[in-house]
């Protein structure tokens, strides 16, 4: 029976690196030049403890010196206690008790950068479904193992053709409009797609209608691009098209969330949709339709998208997998009118050129075999249960201090305070309850009215939702009762 070696190899320290050092050619012979360069880098902390140094042959080639000069330099470093030689493994930078740094330390990260909230009521969270993770891992592995040379080259700026075809089929069945897969563009998120469209189709100073109240992140994207944001009020029928025409009839675009208006949850009526498309066609304006969570509708099928009611030549449809699968995938898509496609692609080629292909292909496989449709149904049941539990807990704890608007679609609900409270009432209640939530007032541009809370229920544990809802309800009741 053949035997195998029992010798244990040294712990892997990482492959040796090319060292970005410059030798002082006036520092004596070659051995002293190499020694001086390495010694300075070690003492400055540029070469970290435990780093494996290149072999004497490799370093000699890099510096253009004799190999024996590097051997002598390494011996000097070892005698100084700055390097350790390990038989069979190489030469490594030694651990120093108190290294002296001559370079200035890097500045600390700005404290103003905040990580997204994740506690109950935080928006945008999805459930990390174990079944989804297993299937996605398997599909991704299959894609990587079956890949060819083309997958490692520069790809189509529109993205993976298989995924674009699946998205077109999905939209025809679920959103009521037929689109050409060639007009589908894969992007890294709705804001990414929005920014590409702004740069390609609009000019700084152009006016853009924005729902009021509306999605603050999109508002900031528009403003930072130098566009003039025109607040247009939202009522029970959605964006008020007539009000927009009075305020800025010659606007060049409108950003809208017609299927599930953020944050009010209103669905734009068909009359308003037709009026909006007619205005866009007459004004030669673009409609930026953000359809961020239409899959999660708890009462009847989703309404037809704007692009499906005769507005396909003016509507840019923006969809995402963030709510379906998880924001960490950074996977979204646009459906562009043919007249806008080449301009947007030209801009895309100057940014990230094309999206990654492996994950896109894996998602396409999950759509093709029906798994994604099953996942949506399972998550819809889960999120609906979370919504109902949060609503019940809020109503028990708050009594009449909050008016709960339970949505028939989406992953957030509203809890409205009574009129007549101080302007800082909602902020004070939020702080007292210690919950993660946006305030309704934080989404307004000019509109006024009662304040309240925008509460995300998707992706959160039901017990944690109940606890957070109870805390918020009690805090609201105490605050309101104290002022009656």
Your description of this structure?
The chain has 14 helices and 14 strands. The chain folds into 3 domains: 30-93, Winged helix-like DNA-binding domain superfamily/Winged helix DNA-binding domain (Arc Repressor Mutant, subunit A); 156-356, Aspartate Aminotransferase, domain 2 (3-Layer(aba) Sandwich); 374-482, Aspartate Aminotransferase, domain 1 (Alpha-Beta Complex). It is globular and about 85 Å long. It has 484 residues and is of the alpha/beta class. An 8-stranded mixed β-sheet has the order 3-10-9-8-7-4-5-6, sandwiched between helices. Strands 11-12-14-13 form a 4-stranded antiparallel β-sheet, with helices on one face. Helix 6 runs parallel beside helix 7 and helix 13 crosses helix 14 (462-482).
Structural key phrases:
8-stranded mixed beta sheet, alpha/beta, Arc Repressor Mutant, subunit A, 3 domains, Aspartate Aminotransferase, domain 2, 39% helix, 4-stranded antiparallel beta sheet, Aspartate Aminotransferase, domain 1, 484 residues, disordered N terminus, 14 strands
Biggest beta-sheet profile? 8 strands, mixed
> Count of helical segments?
14
- State the end-to-end distance: 90 Å
**Would you identify the CATH architecture of the largest domain?**
3-Layer(aba) Sandwich
CATH topology of the largest domain: Aspartate Aminotransferase, domain 2
Q: How much strand?
A: 5-15%
| CATH top level class name of the largest domain | Alpha Beta
Rounded radius of gyration (Å): 30 Å
Total individual domains: 3
Into which percent range does the helicity of residues fall? 25-40%
* Sequence of strands across the biggest β-sheet: 3-10-9-8-7-4-5-6
CATH homologous superfamily grouping of the largest domain = Type I PLP-dependent aspartate aminotransferase-like (Major domain)
H and E string: HHHEEHHEHEHEEHEHEEEHHHEEHEEH
Please mark out the parts with pLDDT under 50 across 5 or more consecutive residues, or reply none: 1-16
**Shape call:** globular
- Tell how many strands the DSSP assignment holds: 14
